[in-house]
Amino acid sequence: MSIDTSQPAGAQQTNPADGQRVPLPPPLQLLAAEIETFHRELPRLMDEGEAGRYVVVRDDQIHGVWDTFRDAIQYGYEKFDDGRFLAQKIDPRLGPVLARHFGPLPDAESP
After folding, report:
1. How far apart are alpha carbons 58 and 79 in whole angstroms?
2. Are 74 and 91 in contact (CB under 8 A)?
3. Cα within 13 Å of Cα(19), Cβ side
4. Burial environment of residue 43 by CB neighbours within 10 A (0 to 12, 13 to 18, 19 or more)
5. How far, in Å, CA of 26 to CA of 92, rounded?
């Protein structure tokens, strides 16, 4: 599964004024730990020049970066028998989208 950066026509960007975080939509709640890990690691991945590539995340760990979504998915299914992992394009536009759910992007940190 991966996160979609598009929004349906007429959808509004939600930024709660009171600072409360918006819950993830139900289809994404099963991967909440993976999405939060992606959010946390996004600045570092961007700083390392990985934009446009695809990352595989399971729980709180990054399991590698690939050039294609197909390669990332193939690795994920080979590595995780239960098929639970996130294969996601490294895209800076996801920072503000995920900030609604997990707070502001953290500063990039060295591995």
Report:
1. 10
2. no
3. 1
4. middle
5. 23
Q: Phi-psi bin for 103: left (phi > 0), alpha (psi -120 to 50), beta?
A: left
Task: Render pLDDT for 12-67 as a digit per residue (tens, 0 to 9).
Answer: 444 454 567 899 899 899 999 999 999 999 999 999 999 999 999 999 999 999 99
Q: 61-66 and 86-89 as β-strands: parallel, antiparallel, unpaired? A: unpaired
Q: Average pLDDT, stretch 4-11?
A: 46
Q: Are 101 and 24 in contact (CB under 8 A)?
A: yes
Query: CA–CA separation, 11 vs 83, rounded Å?
Result: 31
d(CA 85, CA 32): 10
Return d(Cα 94, Cα 5) in angstroms, integer.
7
Place of tokens 């909440």: 32
SS3 content of the chain, % helix, strand, coil (to 5): 35, 15, 50
